[in-house]
Amino acid sequence: MSLVPMIILTAILALFLGFYYFSLIISIAIWFPHRARAKWVALVESPAIDAFRWFWKWIAPAWLVTVTVAIAFIAIRLAAVL
Q1: pLDDT per residue over 46-72, tens digit each?
Q2: Angle in degrees, CA 56, 32, 17, rounded to 5
Q3: Contact (CB, 8 A) for 81 and 2
Q4: Helix-strand-coil percent breakdown of the chain, rounded to 5?
Q5: Contact of 42 with 67, CB cutoff 8 Å
Q6: Please, are residues 6 and 68 in contact by the beta-carbon 8 Å criterion?
Q7: Residue 11 phi, psi (nearest 5)
Q8: Cβ-based neighbours of 30, under 8 Å, separated by 6 or more
Q9: Dist. CA 14–CA 22, nearest whole Å
Q10: Rg of the chain over CA atoms, in angstroms?
Q11: Which residues lie below 8 Å from residue 33, measured CB to CB, with a gap of 6+?
Q12: Residue 41, SS3 per DSSP
């Protein structure tokens, strides 16, 4: 059994989850600044942040589930072949 496909799948999953949680941390940092500065307040009230919140509410969970299921399906198929 070759470990290369499993290493590749693990790397893809790690990159995906890393991006997801890094983006989540950035969004929390934007939404809850420790010190309310004028630029933070302007950023939090901007339409771009509304779009970002909509993304996290609707798109990101569906994307996370879809990619996770796809990676699991590929891993199962590779395990069956190898």
Answers
A1: 676 777 777 777 777 787 778 878 887
A2: 40
A3: no
A4: 85, 0, 15
A5: no
A6: no
A7: -65, -40
A8: 40, 43, 44, 49, 52
A9: 12
A10: 18
A11: 40, 44
A12: helix
